[in-house]
Q: What sequence folds into this?
């Protein structure tokens, strides 16, 4: 019996480690590839470490590719993501509060619509959004990306769940008795207690916005407007590794370590946010649902 | 793909429900709260909902239904007869079949395994599984391009076993559904494992202990106690993943660029809609495909909200 239990544990651990490798090996490869030259990437072990100086050199090549293209894309991504997230918070937090702690005609209907829109994949709306943005002459402006990002029903639902389950209504009633108006109650009582949910909504909005490809791909015109996710496609299409005919017009050719470095730079902001949010993501968000 | 988002919805719901069961929610309406205040709090969101959710949907439907003589289904029929229409949906359904089947088996199995580990060890695994979620989008496609290239891949020994000697052997149209399934699993599975883990933790410990006292071994406890109790979340994962998978765009789009024509630029319905709109200027036909996709998404959403009983609106 004991032997069988050990055997099971051993098999389970082997399977878990195999899958951990599946998820982690590409990340390791991505970290190591920019430390090597293209030749080394092709001919040395995928897990071999090149040198820090090659890493720095690759970083420099990517950051200075065609002037400051990468920095422009990163700046655009930051504007779209931070702008979208800020507006999403501005709309979602009061809306979640209103849906959870006030009564008005149409509240249930609004909540149901929010759920439906939340589940429907946003990409289905991208082309219709383009047509709408085009009709109001927003194409090519930052608003064509930021405004659709600001519409974040998932954040509204998270805020609704939070306010309806964690804010003591007696506390709000006490503030009203003390003479606070509805806005004052929200601003001075509910909002300071809502920091965890503001952080959570901001996290999900930012990650979704930063990683979004299709919407900015449709809404933006050229390199000066692309976010870094769309920029990655530009790099691939101009890298002779994948597009042998496409390298002629570039002053600097991009190789495999450069593409890996560009990918690394692209995901870095989200990885940093992931690292900071790790506790919340893997344990904290399951508060009330975690072991021990 | 919107899967990572979905994970927390349900986690939040799980914990919210627990808190409520435990008496965390206080009933009754707060004194002094007025309807006007409620409207004001939701006003910004409602404006965004109308302008960026309802309006584009209505606009797309109007475009798709517009016909020379008034209203009609001409654009739907146009797209249906378009020779790349049926293959695009076939591609998606083939991809979904592979992805959903493997994701369900692996996510549930891994979540059950992680749940048997000590908390500290399991949190390391959960983080490793979840981390690729940071790479959703174009970044993961670029990484997997290198993973599928036998010249650069750490998995070259597996690729060689399938007689793939170069990227052009791996990334061929016949392999695309599997390739996209691997990419989707890579970025999305971790989030679902975390959520299944959360659902498993909601099972009362006494129930599991009672089963063990009755002689139930690890397998029996997993299959007969734990699995039925997280069935709802498995259905939730399947339905939501299906809706997200039908919208595939970035993966085939970047592969089409990277393989210089090997992957057709109209592989998925969303790509076809994009192609119709921006290459052929057939916006009404593109709107018809958007409406098709919206209907799929809407059906799934309505099914979940009204029949799934996973969501709480009161």
A:
């Amino acid at each position: 019996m004991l032997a069988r239990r050990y055997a099971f544990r051993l098999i389970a651990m082997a399977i878990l480690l195999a899958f951990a490798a599946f998820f982690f090996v590409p990340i390791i490869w991505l970290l190591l590839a920019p430390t090597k030259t293209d030749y080394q990437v092709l001919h040395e072990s995928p897990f071999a470490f090149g040198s820090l100086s090659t890493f720095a050199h690759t970083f420099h090549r990517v950051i200075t590719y065609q002037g400051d293209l990468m920095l422009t894309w990163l700046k655009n991504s930051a504007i779209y993501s931070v702008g979208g997230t800020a507006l999403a918070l501005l709309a979602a937090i009061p809306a979640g509060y209103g849906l959870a702690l006030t009564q008005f005609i149409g509240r249930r209907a609004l909540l149901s619509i929010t759920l439906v829109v939340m589940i429907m994949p946003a990409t289905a709306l991208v082309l219709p959004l383009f047509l709408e943005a085009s009709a109001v002459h927003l194409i090519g402006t930052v608003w064509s990306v930021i405004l659709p990002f600001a519409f974040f029903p998932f954040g509204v639902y998270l805020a609704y769940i939070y306010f309806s389950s964690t804010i003591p209504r007696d506390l709000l009633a006490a503030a009203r008795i003390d003479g606070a108006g509805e806005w004052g109650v929200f601003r001075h009582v509910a909002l300071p207690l809502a920091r965890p949910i503001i952080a959570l909504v901001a996290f999900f909005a930012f990650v979704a916005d930063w990683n979004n490809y299709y919407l900015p791909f449709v809404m933006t015109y050229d390199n000066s407007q692309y976010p870094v996710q769309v920029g990655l496609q530009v790099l691939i299409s101009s890298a002779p590794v994948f597009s042998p005919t496409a390298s002629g017009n570039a002053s600097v050719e991009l190789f495999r370590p450069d593409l890996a470095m560009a990918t690394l730079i692209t995901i870095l902001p989200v990885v940093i946010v992931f690292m900071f949010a790790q506790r919340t993501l893997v344990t904290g968000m399951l508060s009330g649902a975690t072991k021990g | 793909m919107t899967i990572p988002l979905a994970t927390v919805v349900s986690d939040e719901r799980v914990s919210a429900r627990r808190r409520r069961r435990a008496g965390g929610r206080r009933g009754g309406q707060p004194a002094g709260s007025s309807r006007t205040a409620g409207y004001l709090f939701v006003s910004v969101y409602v404006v965004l909902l109308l302008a960026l959710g309802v309006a584009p949907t209505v606009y797309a439907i109007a475009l798709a239904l517009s016909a020379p003589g008034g209203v009609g289904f001409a654009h739907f029929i146009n797209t249906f007869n378009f020779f790349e229409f049926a293959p695009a949906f076939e591609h998606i359904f083939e991809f979904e079949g592979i992805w959903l089947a493997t994701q369900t088996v692996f996510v549930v199995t891994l979540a059950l395994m992680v749940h048997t580990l000590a908390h500290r060890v399991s949190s390391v695994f959960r983080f490793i599984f979840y981390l690729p979620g940071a790479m959703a989008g174009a970044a993961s496609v670029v990484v997997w391009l290198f993973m599928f290239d036998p010249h650069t891949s750490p998995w070259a020994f597996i690729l060689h076993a399938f007689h793939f000697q170069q990227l052009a052997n791996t990334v061929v149209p016949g392999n695309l559904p599997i390739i996209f399934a691997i990419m989707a699993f890579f970025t999305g599975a971790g989030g679902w494992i975390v959520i299944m883990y959360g659902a498993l933790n909601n099972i009362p410990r006494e129930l599991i202990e009672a089963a063990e006292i009755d002689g139930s071994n690890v397998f029996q406890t997993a299959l007969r106690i734990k699995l039925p109790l997280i069935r709802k979340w498995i259905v939730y994962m399947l339905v939501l993943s299906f809706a997200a998978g039908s919208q595939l765009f970035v993966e085939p789009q970047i592969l089409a660029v990277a393989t210089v024509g090997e992957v057709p630029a109209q592989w998925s319905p969303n790509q076809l809609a994009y192609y119709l709109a921006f290459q052929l200027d057939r916006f009404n036909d593109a709107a018809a495909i958007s409406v098709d996709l919206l209907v799929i998404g809407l059906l799934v959403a309505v099914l979940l909200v009204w029949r799934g009983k996973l969501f709480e609106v009161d």
Summary: Chain B touches chain A through 129 residues (CB under 8 Å). Chain B has one domain: 3-8+83-307. The CA atoms of residues 247 and 270 of chain B lie 6 Å apart.
